[in-house]
Amino acid sequence: MTDWTKQKAERARRVAAVTSLVSGKVVEPENVTSLLERIICSGDRVCLEGDNQKQADFLAESLTRVDPAQVHDLHIVQSGLVLSEHIDLFRLGIARKLDFSYSGPQSGAIARALDQGKIELGAIHTYIELFARYFVDLTPHVSLIAAVSADRNGNLYTGPNTEDTPTIVEATAYKNGIVIAQVNKIVDEVPRTDIPGDQVDFIVEAPRPFYVEPLFTRDPAAVTETQILMAMIALKGIYAEYRPRRLNHGIGFATAAIELLLPTYGKQLGLQGEVATHWALNPHPTLIPAIESGWVQQIHCFGSEVGMDHYMSARSDVYFIGHDGTLRSNRLLCQNAGLYACDMFIGSTLQIDLAGNSSTVTPDRIAGFGGAPNMGADAHGRRHISDAWLKAGREAAGNNGPLVRGRKLVVQMAETFGEGMKPAFVEELDSIVLARKLGMPLAPVMIFGDDVTHIVTEEGVANLLLCRNADEIEQAIRGVAGYTPVGLARDRVKVEALRQRGVIRRPEDLGIDILQANRNLLAARSVRDLVTWSDGLYAPPSKFRNW
Amino acid sequence: MEKFTIYTQAKSSLGGKRSDTLTGVVASGNLEILFERKGEPLAVIVEVMTASHGYQHVWEAVIKDFVARVSPGGMYISIHDNGARPDTVLLRLMQGARLMEARS
Amino acid sequence: MIPENVMNQPSWYESSARARIEGLLDAGSFKEILGPQDHVMSPHLALFDLPPAFDDGMIIGRGLIDGRPVAIAAQEGQFMGGTFAEVSGAKLVGLLRAVARNAGTPQEVSTVFLLLDTGGVRLQEANAGEMAVSETIHAILDVRHAGVPVVALIGGRAGAFGGGGLVTACCSHIIISEQGRISVSGPEVIETNKGVEEFDSRDRALVWRVTGGRSRVLLGGADSYVKGDIGSFRKAAEVINNNAPPLSLETLEREQGRLEHRLKAYGNCHDTPEIWVIAGLSTPAGIADLTEDDFIDLLVKEGVRHDAR
C-alpha cells in the first residue's frame, strides 16, 4: 500500500525531536542552533528569509553555526542573498545549491563563490518568478523568517516590513514544512495578525531587532543637473505625451529627480492629477513632496523603508495601512500589481546595447534581478485598457485596428557615461561576456530590448515604438548615446531622419532649455527638506542627516 | 594631467558686452571655464587642462557641437577639468556663453 | 509642507562661493581683487598632477551691503576642500591687511565678511597653509583692533575645520546655519586618534549634534543663527553692528571666565543632549529635530549665553 502521508510523518518526527529545546512554541536564543540541527536535514530546501530590505539575520547567524558534518548540502531558496552569513553557508559546506533573485552587496562574493565551485547555481529569478516556483518545484522544507513581534501561540506581527513573509509561510506551512520565526519581541497580544499562529511552529526572541536596509532613500542633495535634465525630458517627452496614471519607478537618482520635479516642473506642465496618481512603489522618501502637494491618490508597497513608517501611518488615505495603524507591504502582490496594473515602468540602468537590451551585471558581479524584469516587461496576459497603454500599442503597430493590443511603457533612463567615465551604451553587454565565461545558456539580461519602449538620456529621448526595424532601433539608440564610442559612431544622416520623424527628440525639440536644468527646480534639495515637507513625520536614518 | 589647445572657427562672433566670465568649479566630476573676449572675431581657442587622460577626441567632439550650436566667435576659453563628463562640459560651455551674451 | 517661495530660494549650503557673494552683496556691487582673469594660481598643484583653479578657491574683493562698503572673502569649499594654501592664504591676508591699513581713511570699510568653507590646511601646501592660517589670525586681530568687525558666515559643505575653525573663533561675530559646522579636529581625525567609542565619524546625526550650527549657537560658539537660504544670511549680515566688545585684556579675561565655567558645567558630558539637560532646555533630546522656526523661537527665549568673543 502506498503511504500518502510520508511528509506529514516526517514533519511530526522532526517536531518531536526538539521538544526538550522548546517551551510551547518558544525557543531560547541559545538553543536555536541545536534546534536547527535537529529540524533541518541535509539536502533540505531552506528559505532563510532575506530580501533587499529585511533580514532574518539572527537565524542566519545561528544557521552558520550548525555542524556541517550533520547538516550539509542544503538548497537555499530565497529572494535575497544579502548578508555575509548567507555566503558563509556555502563556504562552510552547509549549503550547496542556490536559487535566488537579488544579491546586492554580496554580488561580488557570489561571483567568486561560483567561480570556486562553492555554489551550485540553480537559477537567478525575478521575485515573483521565485515565489511562483515555491508553489511548484522549489517548496521550502524549512523556512526561517523574521517578524516584529509574536504572541506565545505564534501569531506574528510582521508590520510595515511584511514583504515576502506571507508568501514564504504559505508555501512552507501548507506543504508540511516547518516555519521558525525570529521576532524582536514576544508580547501578550500582537497589534495585528499578519501570520496566523497555526502556520508557525517555533518562535525565538532575537537579541536584537532584525536588520533592515534603507534601500530606497535617495538624498536629494546628490541629484545632479544632468539627472534633472533627464527628468525634464522624461516628464515632457513621455509623461505629458502618454499621461500614464498608474506606474512604478525604479530606485535610481534619475527617477528620484522625476519625483522631486513633479510639484515644480510637472505642475508647470499642467500634469497634476493627469499622471502618476496610482503607484506600485516602495516608500520612496523623494515622493513626499508630490504626495504632500496632492499628486498621489494611492500607493501599494513591496516593502517598507527605514524612517518612513510614521509618515505612512499618518497618510492612510494614500498607503495600505492595517487597522492597527501601520503599513502592510507585500512583495508578491505588489510585484503582481506592477506587472498587470501599471501603464509604465521607468527606471535607470547601467548598460544598454544596440538592440535596447539592458543589464546591471558587470563581469565580476552577479547582482541578480529583483523585480525590475517584471516591472519592465509587457504583460501579454493583460486585457484591460487604458489610454496610455493603447497609445503605446498603436504607435508600435502603426495602426489602431480591433486586434491591436496596448503596450506597457517601459522606459530606461541612462546617463551616457556612468561612474568612472564608463559608457552606458555598449556594442556588447558585460552580461553576455559573463554568460560566455560561466557557460550560462541564457545571459542575465535585466530588460530585453523588445520590451523597452523608450530610452532617455541627457541627449534626448528615443522612442523605440516608432522604429520599424533593427537598423532604426540601433540608430535611434546611437542617436541618444552622446559622446560614448557608440554615440560617436552614429550615422548622422539616419539619426537626423529619425529626429525629423520624432523617433528621437532632443531637449530643444521638446522646448526644454538645458540651462533651466538646475537644482532650484527640485521640490526638495536635501533630506532635511523632505523632513520639513513631511511635517516632521519622516525620520531618516543617521547616515542621511546633515543636521 | 593632460594639456592641449583646440583651434576652430565660428560662423559669427558671440554677442554681448561682457569681457570675461567664469563658470563652474574645479570640484570632483566638475570643471571651471573662463571665457575671455579676445582675439580674431571668428576664432575660437579652447585651452584644456584635464585630470582625465586619453579623451582629447571626445573634447574635440564636444567643442565642435558647442561651436555649431552657439557660434562663439572671438572667445578665448580656458578650462580646468577635474573629471567632468562630456554632458557636464557642454552644459558649462553653454552656461558660460549665455553669461557672455549678457548686455552688461 | 514647504511654501513655494521658500522652496525655490538658493541655498547657502549648495551654492558656490561666487553665488554666495552675489547673493550677500547689493546687486552688481562686487569688485573682485585678483580675479580669475589675472590667473593667480597655485604653483604647487601641478606637481601633484592636480588641476588648479583660476582663483585658487579664494575670492576676495569689496562691495556694498545696504549701500555700506564692506570687504569680503569667500572660500570655495568644493575646490580642494576650501583649503588654506599659499595663494589663497596670501589673498585673504592681503585683503585683511588692506582693511586694517585703510581704517579711518576714505577707503575704510564698515565690516569684513569671511565666507569660510574649509577643511583646514591644504595638505599639498601644508607649510604655506599653516603659515597662512597664523597670518590670517594675526591680520583678523589687527582689523578688529582697528575698530572694524570681522564677521564669519558658516554654512557650507566643508564647514569650518582645522585652521578654519581657529580663524572662525577669532572673528568678532559668527553667523551660522543648521548645516554649518565648526570644530578644530574633524570627526574622522578624532575617530582615528581616539577610537570609534570616542567619536563615530560615520554617525552623521552625532557629528552635527556636536559640531553643527544649533549646538554651536546654543553653547556660544556662534552668535547668530539663520535659516539655510542665502537671503537669510544676507538679512543677518545687514543688521551686524560693531557691537562686539573691544579686543581688550578685560574682554579676553571675561571670555576665559566663560569658557572655564562652561568646562566645569559640561566637561563630563558625552553628547549634547546631556548638556541641554544640565542647561535646563525644554526638549533636550529633540533639539536637532525642532523645525527651524521652533528652534529660532527657543533661541529667542534662551538668549545669547556669552558676553565676549
From TrEMBL, chain A:
It holds the Pfam family Mal_decarbox_Al. Gene3D superfamilies: Glutaconate Coenzyme A-transferase (3.40.1080.10). SUPFAM superfamilies: NagB/RpiA/CoA transferase-like (SSF100950). NCBIfam families: mdcA (TIGR01110). This is Malonate decarboxylase subunit alpha. It comes from Acetobacter thailandicus. The gene is mdcA.
Automatic annotation (TrEMBL), chain B:
It is found in: Cytoplasm. InterPro entries: Mal_deCO2ase/Cit_lyase_ACP (IPR023439), Malonate_deCO2ase_dsu (IPR009662). Pfam families: ACP (PF06857). Signal peptide: none annotated. Keywords: Cytoplasm, Phosphoprotein. The keyword Ubl conjugation does not apply. It comes from the Bacteria. Its main location: cytoplasm. HAMAP family: Malonate_deCO2ase_dsu. This is Malonate decarboxylase acyl carrier protein. It comes from Acetobacter thailandicus. The gene is mdcC.
UniProtKB/TrEMBL annotation, chain C:
GO terms for molecular function: lyase activity. It comes from the Bacteria. Gene3D superfamilies: 2-enoyl-CoA Hydratase, Chain A, domain 1. Its EC number is 4.1.1.88. InterPro entries: AcCoA_carboxyl_beta, ClpP/crotonase-like_dom_sf, COA_CT_N, Malonate_beta. It holds the Pfam family Carboxyl_trans. Residues 1-93 form the CoA carboxyltransferase N-terminal domain. Keywords: Lyase, Transferase. PANTHER family: ACETYL-COENZYME A CARBOXYLASE CARBOXYL TRANSFERASE SUBUNIT BETA, CHLOROPLASTIC, MALONATE DECARBOXYLASE BETA SUBUNIT. This is Biotin-independent malonate decarboxylase subunit beta.
